[in-house]
Amino acid sequence: MKNLRNLLWGIPLALVVTFPLWKPTVAAFLKPRGGYDPELAARAAKVQQNFVMDSLILTLTTMGREEWVIRAERAFTGKTDREIGMIEVDALYHGKEEPVTITSRRGTYFLDQRHLILIDDVVVKKPKSHEILFTDLLHYYDATKMLVSPVDVEIQTPKFTLQAGRMDYDLSTDGYEFSHGVVVEL
Questions:
Q1: Which of 20, 84, 26, 80 is nearest to 55 (CA)?
Q2: What is the pTM (predicted TM-score) of this model?
Q3: What is the DSSP letter of 8?
Q4: pLDDT tens, 98-131?
């Protein structure tokens, strides 16, 4: 038993003592071959990561709190790899008062600006207040928590129907601003 213990501490001791003999051979073996080519590195940095997915779930958080869950039937890389194109989009916003659901046929999400654009048959539903908004183009700016529709909008509620040419909706304050020929039918 003592001989085995003496042998175990002898192995690392032998490696340390013989280190000057085997160090050059191991260092030569581990030395990187080839060289550094700055042009090749620059070309590699410009390569994009392109993809096409059959399904996508994108979660947006603010200060660790989940605010948006965006689902798409298909997703793909846009003009750059920092842009995600989506088809058949279904988004859920967990707001202060009530959840808001948004559907559209197409969408684009810009990762760097945290900017979501929804296009074609956009429908925004607020189930607790029974409001439904219809438009063809809707922008969401995460920095300001604003939904902006620069084209015609229609809002239907049990009490009234509103039509306007442009809408700004602040999700943080639940405040609307309309312009360009607002028509309200009671």
A1: 84
A2: 0.70
A3: H
A4: 788 999 999 999 988 989 999 999 999 988 889 9
